[in-house]
Write a structure and sequence with these properties.
alpha+beta; GMP Synthetase, Chain A, domain 3; 3-stranded mixed sheet
Length: 125
């Protein structure tokens, strides 16, 4: 379990990185980019940013490329907004967990729709 301070830093970075991405990267070409989670090393020198991108496959590729291209600028803007001894080096990772969860929910819905309509319920004897 991470320390309370580390949790607070993670949440602060998550909020600020999301805000910087919202301001710096246009939604039209790159899809809607969300910051799902931020993992921070214990020494605060590096941070892994788990992102989700809503849009077409083309927009996802473009959005991920934009994030990596503008990584240093995003890192600098976050460093100005969040005062820490070290500004963590950001590493972006595409988080497909939301898409995977949606696929599972879709499969469950399909199973419920195709299931038997005449389900028998146990009768009280």
């Amino acid at each position: 379990m991470p320390s309370l301070r580390l949790q607070r830093v993670r949440e602060l970075l998550k909020r600020e990185i999301g805000e910087v991405i919202r301001r710096e990267i246009p939604v039209g070409e790159s899809g809607l980019i969300t910051v799902n989670e931020v993992g921070v090393s214990s020494d605060l020198h590096s941070a892994t940013v788990f992102i989700g991108i809503l849009g077409t496959d083309q927009q996802k590729k473009k959005g991920f490329a934009q994030l990596n291209h503008h990584r240093k600028r995003i890192q600098g803007l976050v460093g100005q907004a969040v005062i820490l001894k070290y500004t963590p080096t950001l590493r972006f990772v595409l988080d497909e967990s939301i898409a995977e969860g949606n696929k599972v929910l879709q499969i469950i819905d399909e199973l419920e729709k195709s299931g038997p309509n005449n389900e028998t319920t146990p009768e009280n004897h």
